Amino acid sequence: NAGVTQTPKFRILKIGQSMTLQCTQDMNHNYMYWYRQDPGMGLKLIYYSVGAGITDKGEVPNGYNVSRSTTEDFPLRLELAAPSQTSVYFCASSYSHSNSGNEQYFGPGTRLTVT
Amino acid sequence: GNSVTQMEGPVTLSEEAFLTINCTYTATGYPSLFWYVQYPGEGLQLLLKATKADDKGSNKGFEATYRKETTSFHLEKGSVQVSDSAVYFCALGGRSGGSYIPTFGRGTSLIVHP
Q1: A48 chain-B contacts, CB cut-off 8 A
Q2: Which of B88, B100, B109 best tests the A interface by mutation, with the highest count of A CBs <10 A?
Q3: Beta strands B11-14 and B108-113: pairing type?
Q4: Per-residue pLDDT for A38 more than 60?
Q5: Gap between the Cα atoms of B104 and A60, Å rounded
Q6: pLDDT confidence of B1, banded at 50, 70, 90?
């Protein structure tokens, strides 16, 4: 199993450009998540998905969009990039089948700089 | 709603010192509790977990016990190594608004000197 993979690892964008961060998991997990982590800070949830075709907003969704057409893939789209979106982006997945919740598996992250 | 509070860092220790990182939580129901570790330049990875009260999770010399009476899940290690330098996140599982949305603490940076 490759687990959770993310591409690209690094990216520099100019203000106003757009891009898609890719995320794929091969564990057949139903839940997938996108987080951002600013320097020295914790995680903030951007969007999540409970299964193919179903997505919902997290804590900081403005400026981002997602789609979930398959169980495996959960791309994050940035439209009109702004300097405030400079961050490290992590994708995660989990298989949640109990009311107590299961652990998440994280990708290695995408380091994005907007200048 | 659910919340996790963990001690602020950085925690700076000498090699072989004893480590405690405090974590307390507020939650409805009976969530699972987790500690994740993030090494420099990497994503988070699960360190240990506990799924019910009085469970003890352990891995790589780290331990944490699910204490329902004090709503705590403190991380401990008897003798830290330089390679333990990382950021540690306490988290709780369970449902939030009907979906499984984990709640994370802010993270505690650990720096271990030789």
Answers
A1: 99, 101
A2: B100
A3: parallel
A4: yes
A5: 15
A6: confident
- Residue A64, token pair as written in the block: 């981002």
**Residues belonging to chain A:** 115
Say what the pLDDT of residue A65 is.
97
Q: Please determine, for residue A25, whether its predicted confidence score (pLDDT) is greater than 70.
A: yes
Opening angle at CA A100, ends A35 and B7, nearest 5: 55
Nearest to B102 among A4, A41, A104 (CB): A104
- Spatial separation of the C-alpha atoms in residues B114 and B42, rounded to whole Å: 22
Q: Tell me the per-residue pLDDT of A57-85, one tens digit each, with 9 for 90 and over.
A: 999 999 999 999 999 999 999 999 999 99
- The sign of the CA dihedral B92, B95, B96, B99 is positive
For the stretch B46-67, pLDDT in tens is 999 999 899 999 999 999 999 9
Does residue A100 register a pLDDT over 60? no
Angstrom distance (rounded) from CA B63 to CA B55: 10
A 57-86 → B contacts, CB under 8 A: 58
Q: Is A84 helix (H, G, I), strand (E, B) or coil?
A: helix
DSSP notation for B26-85: E-SS---EEEEEE-TTS-EEEEEEE-STT-EEEETTEEEE-BTTTTB--EEESS--GGG-
